[in-house]
Amino acid sequence: MSPLEKFKQSAIKIALFYETERRMGNDFSDFSLIASDITYMVANDFGHPSYLYFEGKPVVAIYLTCAVGRNGTLEQVTGLMQDAARSAGVGKIYLIGVLIKHCLTSRKLN
């Protein structure tokens, strides 16, 4: 049995990690790729038997949500992702924000 066949038979689940900086630019302001990225995920990834679902929704982790949030555009970005998923026929996706230590220490906390 090949490694891929063994993986397909395992209980291991995978989810995609949306790399905001590379997909939205260093200033997190270019939203032009979001819809096509999500549409691609729906067509090529979400249907895989090993793809992780939570509460019936495919899971996508969003990297550096704090940086997107600092721009005041996190709600817009997640809305674009949800709209693209609905348009592609998957319904809602379950989004997880990835927070890293840099985000906590790079701004003053009250």
Main attributes of the structure:
4 strands, about 110 residues, 6 helices, disordered C terminus, alpha/beta, globular
Description of the structure:
The protein is α/β, with parallel strands linked by helices. The protein has one domain. Helices cover 44% and strands 15% of the residues. The chain has 6 helices and 4 strands, in the order H-E-H-H-E-E-H-H-E-H. Strands 1, 2, 3 and 4 form a 4-stranded mixed sheet that branches. The chain is globular, with a radius of gyration of 16 Å.
Question: SSE layout and pairings?
Answer:
Layout: H1 3-9, E1 16-18, H2 20-24, H3 34-44, E2 53-54, E3 57-63, H4 65-70, H5 74-87, E4 94-98, H6 101-105
Parallel strand pairs: 1-3, 3-4
Antiparallel strand pairs: 2-3
